[in-house]
Amino acid sequence: MTDEPGRIFRNAWISGVRTHFPGEPKPGYVTPWDQTPEWERQAAASVFKQVYDLVEASGGKTTELTREQKSRFVAICWVAQVHKHFESPKPGYVADWESLPEWQQETDADIFEEIERHAGPS
Fold it and tell me: Which domain of life does the UniProt lineage start with (predicted)?
């Protein structure tokens, strides 16, 4: 379960960063899947599954959500994963959605929509 879903999540993240980040992103933001730390691979796969399950459970009606709602869901799921993998994470890693930069909010919405495409029609 970790590799393919996690890779899809990571590729959507990298694509979003390249689209929305102002200027040149930090190298860690665009690290390829094969060089991504194991905890982050696990977290990416877990969040993919949470979004996928929501899409499936809604009967595909997540298309009715706003981009903000989609982005918030991804962000909350990610924060839970950070808490799972780190005893005392840096505050910036677990910031509320409102505190995230716009490029990250947009990237999170892109990730949700990419996962929606993989879930397909119900």
Answer: Bacteria
Residue 107 placed within a domain: yes
Q: At what angle do helices 102-119 and 67-85 cross, to 10 degrees?
A: 100
Q: Is residue 11 part of a domain?
A: yes
DSSP letters spanning 7-69: HHHHHHHHHHHHHHSSSSPPGGGG--GGGS-HHHHHHHHHHHHHHHHHHHHTTTGGGGS-HHH
Q: Which domain holds residue 76?
A: 3-20+44-119
Say how many domains are in the chain. 1
